[in-house]
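tmp note - Ribosomal silencing factor RsfS
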Amino acid sequence: MTVSERAHELAIVAAQAAADKKAQDIVIIDVGDQLAITDAFLLAAAPNERQVLAIVDAIEEALLDLPEKAKPVRREGERGGRWVLLDYVDVVVHVQHTEEREFYALDRLWKDCPTIPFVDRDLASAEAAAGSGE
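out:
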């Protein structure tokens, strides 16, 4: 895996922020061996423009709350709310409307790259509680 510790931290925190806003199909792709400009892509989808923007705002807020704050060097696509890109240098976040996610299929484009495991902490907690009989 070629992802730096910082990129891993940013990607996991951003993914959890997206999950907290009910993002769908969250995937972190390690593109470090393929691209010199970033270590990872975070992909997330939402069924409508309002939710896309809410997810983007939550990600930005979560990364600003880190002890070593992270601000995007570039933010694109906000006006339409169909595909917003946040460039944190180490990680590039793509939050897409579900239709764009299916059409552009970034997952397939980068299918040869390894993924970084992410499990929504709320889902993990629910599964643990169900497993323990609570």
